[in-house]
Model the fold of this input.
Amino acid sequence: MDRNFGIIFYYWQPEGVFEPPINFYETDEDFVIQVALAGVKKEDVKVFFRDGEIVIQGFRVFDFGEGEKKFYNLEIEQGKFEKRISVGYQVEVDKISSKFENGLLEIKIPKKKPKEIIIE
Done:
């Protein structure tokens, strides 16, 4: 039996925003998404389910303080970010949960159990 219910997973990234790195895996019970969001405040992140996708949006900005600066390297992206991950409709939408600790956002998406249909 196909453990993914025949779902094809994909990632989509809009232009003009940065893409935070993720881990995406499954267990017997859940799909799990982990998003690395160092320097992002919890209140600056939104997660929702729409059209079979988990959508993660937010904003990161660094305060470099007052005065003139001479930068040698700026590799850490800032500004808006958005990540869309297709998980299909074979999930328990009302039971999706998330937590944000130490710069890591973790989203658990429970899988729907196949419903057996009794033959009469």
Observations:
- Confidence is low (pLDDT under 50) at residues 1-12.
- Strands lie at 11-12, 22-26, 30-36, 45-50, 53-60, 79-86, 97-101, 104-110.
